Structures are given as structure tokens and as C-alpha cells.
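Re: that backbone. C-alpha cells:
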């Protein structure tokens, strides 16, 4: 055996011993050797005695010596490798193990949706991948749109998703710091207070001309700044960044940094009236929070220049801004701006209406958090907009819920079948075809309901099998169907039909969410409601239970008499 190989084995044994209190084992080392050197797998029999010998010499030396030998002879083994494993996310530019800080910064102005899930999951996965940390920060500096209810809803949504963060904070709690930075800006001449009206500001921006206010001296700016806290009314004065009124990037044409909003803030009430806008607040917060990698969706791309310039001029540390695409579904817009009016105008029943891409709607519909995570990580990590097929999310979900979904019979548009010579009063049916999920007892008296679609094609003389029960021959087709039991042997060639015992059938309503928008118009038929019958066992299931209705689809029990269609 060559020395090179002995050296590799010794390194592996030392590392394993040092990670396990100074003791390693042959079997661990063997599998690690086979794992890192696949070409040795065939020769492993020959190597085993060598491994055992090396293992005992390594175990014979104390832990400190193992560690120092590792450090001097095998430094490469001690470099932590980012766990790239299953996530499929590309490595982060400039990321250092243990030092990555990401943040998820929602504005508490609406209910969280699957787009937020994408952002939060990517932030979390990167923090995990590099052993770093995730900050969950409410960007709450626009009291006009923000409500306590939304802070709570976003937190509930993240917790449901299983996103783990290391710190929660509110941007509004740092408002005094932001004021200081604004003052510093004004003092240094990087910002000025503008009292022009909205129209002339827009006009100047379009025409690339500066306004008179930008020429004002420091004394004027400081006086106006102080007056923003008392004297001025909203809209009468704003702090503007001294950018470049001729810039190709319209964002840089002296953008607003702070403005007056006289609305009660959900947390600070009327304590503050001057509020930073998005660009100013986010840049300062990301910097003071120690964020190393700040993700934003593509529509903010033009704002990156402003973000960096603000931090440059404030001589503050600059995080790396990275851009990813917004998640959208065909016919299902993923944006608070679009979802809110649907709720406010009563077009949908609320934020948990199953047609919506909100997290509450996903949960109610039976989409599980694990499926959302798998789905998000399966999307290619690009800047181009992701029009992901909803079916991809459904197929991840199906794989996860299938093993634990109970199978029940369902009859939509039911037709009655009376079996004249039924002799059974009770049967037991397994709750899942493969897994042991128990059995249920069903009482029988010879009258059944079967799905209307199956009933339609039946003629006198046909033989069918009532699933899991027995075979019957049709003797009469009327508004009801009459039949006679023939035998119970399984006959592959005859149709198998599900049934509900008529004596205690349970009436349910199935809500079936359909595409929400067709050609950008709200689809008035986006919610189909079907009436159906199911087995009495349904009543024993908890709300939230996932059911696979035979030959129908997966549904989540929403209440005693309502289920929501999850997917096929
Ligand atoms: P909305 O249009 O829903 O109001 P937003 O960007 O204003 O979206 P925020 O609450 O400010 O929503 O967003 C918090 C984080 O979630 C941001 O990083 C934002 O980029 C991200 N995000 C929001 N919507 C999506 C989406 N559809 N796809 C991916 N990320 C999104
Ligand atoms: Mg927003």
C-alpha cells in the first residue's frame, strides 16, 4: 500500500477522532474512505486491515495531539465547506463561512404570500448554508399602509413555513438613528429640503432641471428640516438626495429620502411624523444590522445605485445587493397590491380564500410548508421572471401528502342503487391501500349512492363491482337503479364503482379553486362549488385532515361539511 493512501486514511481517522472526543472507529473510517475515494471501493477488502491499524494508532494518542497533527499535516481537512447539498442554490458571491447575514424585510402592509415565502426561504437557506444568520425585519416606515394585524399575519406565515430566524426587529425602532443620518446628510450637503409641490417636482424630474430649493444654503435646509417635525404639513416639505437631475437612471434625479406622514403608526402612534422612504431606511438598516448579502426582487434593480451612493456618502459599510426574480403564477398574481383590492371589493371571501396565493390560502387548501420549500428551491435562481407552473408545486405537495391522506369514497351528483338481496350489514375497509392507517367500519343496508357520472352509463344486464364489496348485476334503471348481488370474486374486466351507504351518507360541499385571472380580468367563475356525498367516517376526521377521495382528488377538510380541493 502506498504512503499517499496511508496518509489519506490517517487524515480521515484523525478528523473523525477529533470530532468524536478523541476516538474513531474502523467502520466510520471505512465508509468515509469509500465515500471520498470511490475508486478504492473495489479494493476495500485489502485496505480494511490497514484502516484498523491506523485507527488504533490514532486512538492511542490524546485528543490534543490528534488536533495538532491535523492542523500541521492536514489543514485542508479543517476548512469548513459550505453545505451545498440539497438546496440547489448557487454559491453566494463573497460569502465567508460563519459570517453571512441575510435579512427578510417585509412591509407590514398586507398578508404574506408565496412570493414572500420564496424570499424568506432563500434568505434562510443561504444563512444556513454558510452557518450565518437571518434577520427578520419589519420595514415599517409608512404608517399610512401599515397595521398591527399585518405584523402578526406575516409572523404567523413565517412560523407556519418553518422559516427560522435569529433576530426580529422593526425598522421603526431605529427611527432616531435614521434622523441622525438624515441630519448628517443635510450638514454635509448631500441632501436638501425641498418645498416645491408634487407637480413641479415631477416636471423638473422629467425635464432634468434642478429646483430652487437645491440651491438653498445650510441654514435654510437646517431650519426647514426642523420645521418638518412641527410646522410643515404633509406634502409641504421633503428631504431630497442630491443626486443627478440629468442621470439616465431616473431614480437618481434627486429622490425623496424622508417625508411627513401624519398618520398614527401601529407601534409608535403619533410620536413621529417624519418617515424615511424605502431607499433611505433599507440602506441604513441593512448596513447597521450587519447584513452581508441583501436580496431584492428585480423591480428594485434601478434603485441599487441609490442604495450604494447613500451608504458611500454616509461612510457606512455596504452589503452586497443581489437580485432575484419575482415569483408569479400564470393567472395568479403574487403581489399584495393586486390581492388587497380583491379582498376589499369582496371578490374573494378573505385573505384565506383558497384561490389566492397567500400563505393562509395555501394552508387552507392543503398545500404543506415542506412542498413550498421544495418548490421554491427547485426554481432556477435567475433574474428573469419566474412564471412557475402551479402544477410543479402541486406535484411536490402530492408526493408529501399522499402517504398520510386517508382514502374515502365520494359521490358527486349521486344516484341511488338498491341491491335487493344484500346480506351484509357491515364491512371493514382499509384507510390506505399501501400504508397501515387503520380501517373503518361501514354499516350496510343494501341502499347505496354512486357517482352520477358512473350511473349514467349503466344498462340493465351490466355487471359492476362495488369497490371493496361485491359484484352486482343491474336489474332496473330508473330514477333509482336496482341491482342484484352476484358474487364477491374479483373480476378484472368489470367496472369498479365507489359507493356511499345511503342510510348515513354525509353531505359535503367541495370548493374547487380555479384560475383567478383570465387575460388580466378577474375570473368570475374562479370558484366552483360541487355538492357531494361521502362516508360517515368523514365526520370523525379533524378539520385540517387531508383526504384522497377515490378517483376524484386530494381535498382538505375545512369544516364539518366543507372540503377544499387541493389538487388531482
Ligand atoms: P408586494 O407587491 O406584494 O407588496 P413587496 O415587494 O412590496 O411586494 P414586501 O413586503 O416589501 O413586498 O416584500 C418583502 C420581501 O419579499 C422583499 O424582499 C420582496 O422582494 C419579496 N417579495 C415580495 N413579493 C415577491 C414575489 N412575488 N416573489 C419573490 N419575492 C417577493
Ligand atoms: Mg413593499
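Recovered sequence:
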Amino acid at each position: 500500500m502506498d504512503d499517499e493512501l496511508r496518509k489519506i486514511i490517517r487524515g480521515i481517522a484523525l478528523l473523525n477522532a477529533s470530532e468524536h472526543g478523541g476516538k474513531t472507529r474502523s467502520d466510520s473510517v471505512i465508509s468515509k474512505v469509500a465515500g471520498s475515494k470511490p475508486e478504492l471501493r473495489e479494493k476495500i477488502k485489502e485496505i480494511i486491515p490497514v484502516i484498523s491499524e491506523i485507527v488504533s494508532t490514532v486512538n492511542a494518542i490524546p485528543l490534543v495531539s490528534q488536533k495538532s497533527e491535523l492542523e500541521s499535516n492536514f489543514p485542508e481537512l479543517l476548512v469548513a465547506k459550505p453545505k451545498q447539498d440539497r438546496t440547489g442554490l448557487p454559491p453566494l458571491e463573497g460569502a465567508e463561512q460563519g459570517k453571512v447575514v441575510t435579512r427578510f424585510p417585509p412591509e407590514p402592509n398586507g398578508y404574506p404570500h408565496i412570493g414572500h415565502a420564496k424570499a424568506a426561504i432563500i434568505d434562510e437557506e443561504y444563512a444556513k448554508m454558510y452557518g450565518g444568520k437571518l434577520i427578520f425585519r419589519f420595514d415599517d416606515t409608512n404608517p399610512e399602509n401599515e397595521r398591527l394585524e399585518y405584523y402578526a399575519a406575516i409572523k404567523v406565515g413565517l412560523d407556519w413555513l418553518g422559516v427560522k430566524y435569529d433576530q426580529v426587529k422593526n425598522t421603526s425602532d431605529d427611527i432616531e438613528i435614521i434622523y441622525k443620518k438624515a441630519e448628517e446628510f443635510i450638514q454635509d450637503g448631500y441632501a436638501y429640503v425641498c418645498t416645491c409641490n408634487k407637480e413641479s417636482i415631477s416636471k423638473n424630474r422629467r425635464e432634468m432641471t434642478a429646483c430652487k430649493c437645491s440651491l438653498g444654503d445650510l441654514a435654510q435646509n437646517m431650519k426647514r428640516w426642523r420645521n418638518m417635525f412641527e410646522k410643515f404639513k404633509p406634502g409641504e416639505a421633503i428631504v431630497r438626495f442630491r443626486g443627478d437631475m440629468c442621470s439616465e437612471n431616473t431614480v437618481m434625479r434627486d429622490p425623496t429620502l424622508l417625508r411627513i406622514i401624519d398618520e398614527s403608526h401601529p407601534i409608535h402612534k403619533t410620536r413621529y411624523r417624519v418617515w424615511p422612504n424605502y431607499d433611505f431606511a433599507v440602506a441604513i438598516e441593512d448596513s447597521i444590522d450587519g447584513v452581508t448579502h441583501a436580496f431584492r426582487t428585480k423591480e428594485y434593480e434601478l434603485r441599487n445605485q441609490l442604495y450604494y451612493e447613500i451608504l458611500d456618502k454616509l461612510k457606512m459599510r455596504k452589503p452586497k445587493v443581489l437580485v432575484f426574480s419575482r415569483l408569479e403564477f400564470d393567472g395568479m398574481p403574487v403581489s399584495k397590491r393586486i390581492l388587497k383590492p380583491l379582498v376589499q371589493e369582496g371578490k374573494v371571501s378573505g385573505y384565506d380564500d383558497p384561490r389566492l396565493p397567500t400563505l393562509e390560502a395555501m394552508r387552507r387548501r392543503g398545500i404543506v410548508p415542506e412542498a413550498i420549500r421544495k418548490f421554491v428551491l427547485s426554481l432556477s435562481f435567475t433574474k428573469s421572471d419566474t412564471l412557475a407552473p402551479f402544477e410543479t408545486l402541486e406535484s411536490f405537495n402530492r408526493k408529501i401528502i399522499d402517504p398520510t391522506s386517508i382514502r374515502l369514497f365520494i359521490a358527486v351528483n349521486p344516484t341511488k342503487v338498491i341491491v335487493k338481496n344484500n346480506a351484509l350489514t357491515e364491512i371493514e375497509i382499509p384507510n390506505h391501500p399501501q400504508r397501515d392507517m387503520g380501517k373503518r367500519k361501514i354499516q350496510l343496508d343494501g341502499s347505496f349512492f354512486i357517482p352520477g357520472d358512473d350511473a349514467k352509463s349503466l344498462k340493465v344486464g351490466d355487471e359492476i363491482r362495488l369497490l371493496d364489496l361485491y359484484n352486482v348485476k343491474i336489474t332496473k334503471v330508473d330514477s333509482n337503479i336496482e341491482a342484484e348481488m352476484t358474487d364477491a370474486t374479483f373480476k378484472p374486466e368489470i367496472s369498479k364503482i365507489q359507493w356511499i351507504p345511503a342510510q348515513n351518507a354525509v353531505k359535503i360541499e367541495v370548493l374547487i379553486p380555479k384560475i383567478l385571472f383570465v387575460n388580466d380580468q378577474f375570473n368570475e367563475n374562479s370558484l366552483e362549488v360541487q355538492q357531494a356525498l361521502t362516508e360517515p367516517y368523514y365526520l370523525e376526521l379533524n378539520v385540517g385532515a387531508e383526504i384522497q377521495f377515490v378517483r376524484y382528488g386530494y381535498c382538505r377538510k375545512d369544516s364539518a361539511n366543507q372540503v377544499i380541493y387541493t389538487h388531482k
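The mean pLDDT is 94. The two ends are 58 Å apart (CA to CA).
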